[in-house]
Amino acid sequence: MTVATQSTAMPTAGQHGLVAHSDGPVVPVQTRSERFRSVDVADFAPVTGREHEWKLSPVAAFADLTSGELDGARLDLETAGAEGVAVEWIARDDARIGTAGTPEERASANAWTNFGEALLIRVTGEDEKIATVTRTGLGATPRAAHTVIEAAPNSRGLVVLGGTGSARLSENVEVIVGEGANLTVVSVQEWDDDAVHLASHFARIGRDAKLKHIVVSLGGKVVRVNPSTHLAEQGGDVEALGLYFSDAGQHLEQQVYVHHDAPNTRSRVTYKGALQGEGARSVWIGDVLIGNAAVGTDSYEQNRNLVLSDGTRADSIPNLEIETGDIAGAGHASATGRFDDEQLFYLMARGITEEEARRLVVRGFLTEIVQQIGVAELEERLTAALEAELQGA
Questions:
Q1: Residue 376 has pLDDT above 60, yes or no
Q2: Which residues pair with 346 in a beta bridge?
Q3: Which runs of E-coded beta strand occur in 261-356?
Q4: 197, 224 in Cβ contact below 8 A?
Q5: Which residues contact 30 (CB under 8 A, 6 or more apart)?
Q6: Domain ranges in the chain?
Q7: Exposed (0-12), middle (13-18) or buried (19+): which is 43, by Cβ within 10 Å?
Q8: What does UniProt give as the signal peptide span (predicted)?
Q9: Angle 334-162-67 (CA atoms, 0-180°, nearest 5)?
Q10: pLDDT tier at 363 (50, 70, 90 boundaries)?
């Protein structure tokens, strides 16, 4: 068990106008990296919805995943592998488990406490290769899962981790990118309308290694995928991309964290989403921490949301912490809005109907992310899925 403690001492009474909080003498965590961590669910208090990590989430919809006992048996998988990619189950005590990160909230810790074996996807070899692992047929039983994706030093590959059908799943995914490796991980959520999926992704990037991490969330009632990337060694690079389309009554959430912890590291975070229908909801929180040892950092994060109808809500919160002044650059941006009237006018002036013009604008807005996957077959499938969503819009 790994636990990060934090100070609970209050400043001198009345200092700078500070007074004790009604909940007790607790100083809020000031730095993202100082949050409490543990792999044991018992170390976390029950979820109330008032916690900073849960205050924008519909916690009542998944209380069984945060507090109840979870089935940690092996999940049903459909795999399509390639030479240089090994897929196997490993024991809980495997040395690789816990290498990339540790839970910061109760759902992640509950999954860690309850999983039986972990799924290992190991990429080796310097040639390009693609492997697909799809979880399906999980049913209504609350489940726990743990996956380790390991890219050997100087290896190259792309791993697609998908989900279809019904599910009530809480999982942790660890991504270990070895020195000089170049890995792409695509997490595709195409669950049924009743599914609930809570996922914490932890990535550790080695020296001069690169990770492209892509989250695509289209299906499910509540989907919460939180990627956390640790640029732990010099020259590490991460490109974190996300695409989501929230329909009526659907909650799609992603809390992204990038920790620059070594010199000359680079990160680019781009998440784009669309919302349509009464009660459609999206949440994006982007945290970037540039540590005091991360000189030469080059970082930028952005989130864009396109609102297609009334009755929707998009929360977009970028955060940037910088502990050293010797950086190449850092910035963040966030925007939520409706259609660009000039774009619609331009298309309609050329004989395109308003309905088709709107679909073209949305398609162009979202497919920017899809086109960066780099696999034609997967890009075509996701484009078709977006077309189906747009037909409903």
A1: yes
A2: none
A3: 266-275, 281-290, 298-307, 313-322, 329-337
A4: yes
A5: none
A6: 39-338, 340-393
A7: middle
A8: none
A9: 80
A10: confident
Q: What is the pLDDT of residues 73-84, one digit of tens each?
A: 999 999 987 899
Is residue 6 over pLDDT 50? no
pLDDT by residue (tens digit) across 256-308?
A: 999 999 999 999 999 999 999 999 999 999 999 999 999 999 999 999 999 98
- Give Cβ neighbours of residue 256 (< 8 Å, ≥ 6 apart): 226, 227, 228, 240, 242, 269, 271, 284, 285, 286, 287, 301
Distance CA 99, CA 39 (A): 12
Strand partners, 329: 298
CB neighbours of residue 294 within 10 Å: 24
Q: Strand 237-246 to strand 210-219: parallel, antiparallel, or no bridges (unpaired)?
A: parallel
> Strand 85-91 vs strand 117-123: parallel, antiparallel, or unpaired?
antiparallel
Q: Name the pTM for this structure.
A: 0.90
Q: Residue-wise over 153-168: b if at least 16 C-beta within 10 A, else e? A: eebbbbbbbbbbbbbb
> What is the spatial distance between Cα 179 and Cα 153, in angstroms, rounded to a whole number?
5
Residue pointed to by tokens 């190449």: 328
CB distance 103 to 130 below 8 Å: no
* DSSP code for 382: H
d(CA 339, CA 113): 45
Number of Cβ atoms within 10 Å of the Cβ of 17: 5
Check if the beta carbon of residue 123 is closer than 8 Å to that of residue 155. yes
- Mean pLDDT, rounded, of the chain: 90
12: Cβ–Cβ under 8 A, 6 or more apart, which residues? Answer: none
What gap in Å lies between CA 264 and CA 261, rounded to an integer? 10
